[in-house]
């Protein structure tokens, strides 16, 4: 049945499991950074190779960042943002309260 479900529907079902939800919540900040990097690159119709040329960051390192096998430093994130013509903005936001 999983094949017929959309990912978001499947995810919502899985998030009902407290252990899965905890693991999911633990990786969300990293996933948010990865998604933001990929979205910004795609919105500008850039390949990883083109972004590498703009930033001086090796294309293989950009690939590792996007697939989550390398954690970026703030310096690297700033370099990526600059290459995309953007500013890096990091926020601390209140945690969502648990619903009872």
Describe, in plain words, how this protein is organized in 3D.
The chain has helices at 7-14, 18-43, 48-55, 59-66, 74-83. It contains 5 helices and no strands. It is an all-alpha fold. The chain has a domain at 27-86: Orthogonal Bundle (434 Repressor (Amino-terminal Domain)), CATH 1.10.260. 60% of the residues lie in helices and 0% in strands. It is elongated and about 45 Å long. The two termini are 30 Å apart.
CATH class of the domain at 27-86: Mainly Alpha
Instruction: Please state the overall shape, judged from the principal axes of the Cα atoms.
Output: elongated
Strand content: under 5%
Continuous helix count: 5
| Total number of beta strands | 0
What's the helix-strand series?
Answer: HHHHH
Q: Indicate the percent of residues in helices.
A: 55-70%
Largest sheet: none
Q: Can you identify the CATH superfamily of the domain at 27-86?
A: lambda repressor-like DNA-binding domains
Brief summary:
The protein is an all-alpha fold.
What are the key terms here?
100 residues, mainly alpha, 434 Repressor (Amino-terminal Domain), 5 helices, elongated, Cro/C1-type_HTH, DNA-binding, Helix-turn-helix transcriptional regulator, DNA-binding transcription factor activity, DNA binding
Topology diagram in text:
Blueprint: H1 7-14, H2 18-43, H3 48-55, H4 59-66, H5 74-83
Organism: Roseburia zhanii
Protein name: Helix-turn-helix transcriptional regulator
InterPro entries: Cro/C1-type_HTH, Lambda_DNA-bd_dom_sf, TransReg_Diox_bact_type
């Amino acid at each position: 049945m999983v094949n017929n479900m959309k990912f978001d529907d499947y995810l919502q079902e899985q998030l009902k499991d407290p252990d899965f939800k905890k693991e999911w919540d633990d990786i969300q900040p990293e996933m948010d950074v990865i998604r933001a990097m990929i979205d910004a690159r795609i919105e500008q119709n850039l390949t990883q190779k083109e972004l590498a040329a703009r930033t001086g960051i090796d294309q293989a390192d950009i690939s590792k960042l996007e697939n989550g096998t390398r954690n970026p430093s703030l310096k690297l994130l700033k370099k990526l943002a600059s290459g995309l013509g953007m500013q890096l903005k990091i926020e601390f936001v209140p945690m969502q309260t648990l619903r009872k």
